[in-house]
Each structure stands twice: as C-alpha cells, then as structure tokens.
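From the shared-data thread, chain only:
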Amino acid sequence: MALIEVLVSILIFSFGVLGLIGLEASAVNFSIDAEDRSRAALFASDIASTMWLNGTVAVTSPQLVTWQNNIANPALPTGLPSGTVSVTATAGTTNSADILITWTPQTDKTATTRQLTTRVILP
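Structure, as tokens:
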C-alpha cells in the first residue's frame, strides 16, 4: 500500500514539474516578444529623433535604405527578425508622418507579423 502511495505522489509531482516547464517556456516566449517590441520602439524613437533634428518629416532614400538595413540586421542591437520599416507622410498635414515597423518573431509558430506604429508630429 505504501508503494502505491509513493507512486501516486511521484505521478502528481511529475505533473507539477511538467506544468512548471510549460510555464517557463511561455515566459521565455513573452520575454523575447517584449524584447522585440522594445527594440522596435527604440528604433522608431531614433527615426523620430532624426526627423526632429532635420526639422522635417521628409525622408531621403539613403536614410530609408540605411534604416532598413539596420532594422533587418539581427546582429545589430536594433535589428529585428525579418524587420522592415516604412515612413509615410500623414495625409492632410505637412509636418506629420507615421513610422511603421514590422517583424516576424522567430519563436512564434504561427508566423504572425508583429508591428509597431509611431506618429511623429513636428511643430
């Protein structure tokens, strides 16, 4: 009888350990997603700062190519997996633009694209 009790307690303990392992895996995925979002926000802030320094939301082609190369390079601190950036002037305004950063997380099995949008309005 004592042996059956020990086996049942080991079984219950094993289910608890498996639950903790699953929780750890989802915590790691959430952490990676938060890191990607933080990188995208940092990169959008960098683009907005450049616009503020230039005094215009107009973006030259070399700037856009440089930003695109920086965000698509995961070896850089601002790089995102399959990252792209686009800057679009807001319709009806002269000093406003939307910065759209998209990426596909490598840890997501559904391969849904994530995005971050920032609007820059210059005085």
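Helices lie at 2-54, 61-72.
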